Amino acid sequence: MKLNIALFAALGLALAAPVFAQKTGEAPGGKYAGEAEQIFRTSFRADNPSYWMKRLEQDETMKTCQQYRDNPPRPIGQRLEKLNAATIRYPVDGKLVGDWKEGEKLAAVGSGGHIGFIQPDPAGRLRGGNCYACHQLAKKEVAYGTIGPSLRHFGKIRGNSDDIVKYAYDKIYNSNAFTACTNMPRFGLHSWLAPEQITHIVAFLVDPESPVNKD
Ligand code: HEC
Questions:
Q1: What angle, 0 to 180 degrees and rounded to 10, lies between the N-to-C axes of helices 60-67 and 74-85?
Q2: Phi, psi of 123 (to 5 degrees)
Q3: Nearest C-alpha to atom 12 of ligand 1 is from which residue?
Q4: pLDDT tens, N- to C-terminus, the chain (215 residues)
Q5: Of 134, 141, 186, which is best to mutate to test ligand 1, by the most ligand atoms within 8 angstroms of its C-beta?
Q6: Which domains are seen in the chain, by residue range?
Q7: Quick one: 54 exposed, middle or buried, by C-beta within 10 A (0-12, 13-18, 19+)?
Q8: I need a surface site. Which of 157, 160, 204, 210 has the fewest CB within 10 A?
Q9: What start and end residues bound the annotated signal peptide (predicted)?
């Protein structure tokens, strides 16, 4: 992930900035917004599963965050957070803490969700949360990103009260319920992770036996 970010940054500097600065003097998204949108859309095959094609349409949260460059005035941000909070669904049995060992696997898996002209995912491929792309969690994984705060010792520091458990579940289900224009994906809202899978990741965060809380 660090490499990817470095690569994006390098590409951004090498390509995007000079093009916009020298040719147009406009901010990215100005004159070329239509062209960029078209390239983006045509990079998805129409025979992709419909849930992918639906994702090409921005919902109100995305549109508003784009409009305000992820920094909307507070009342607008609060409205978006409310909208997102209203989407959160819970497992039928109401149990929000699952099995940390399952959660450990799900948090680490970063494959799945191929798009564009690449072959679709093989049937049965496990989709994970790719949490390490942005967070430090268990000590043994050293290749973690730092876009999000470290979650190391999450349960050790905050405990595993009902409030903390619900917060962790809600945050993973729909992160924008807390930070209107966050970078963290909305795993539950987009059916990327099922409610039961989210409970396993919650256990990975809060269970005292989980490697997140050891050492
Ligand atoms: C693309 C980056 C990204 C990914 C992937 C990601 N997160 Fe986050 N996460 C963030 C950011 C950024 C924050 C900081 C708060 C915010 O902006 O919402 C955050 C905040 C959090 C918080 C709240 C931390 C606190 O101190 O209260 C939790 C819990 C969390 N993430 C869990 C997870 C889990 C579990 C996964 C994997 C299922 C995950 N995140 C995947 C970016 C990410």
A1: 160
A2: -55, 140
A3: 148
A4: 444 444 444 434 444 433 333 444 454 467 888 898 888 888 877 777 777 778 888 999 999 999 999 999 999 999 999 999 999 999 999 999 999 999 999 999 988 776 656 666 777 788 899 999 999 999 999 999 999 999 999 999 999 999 999 999 999 999 999 999 999 999 999 989 999 999 999 999 999 999 999 98
A5: 134
A6: 43-213 (1.10.760.10)
A7: exposed
A8: 157
A9: 1-21
Q: Which two tokens stand for residue 211?
A: 């490697």
Record the tokens describing residue 123, joined without a space.
Answer: 């049937």
Residue carrying structure tokens 């803490």: 97
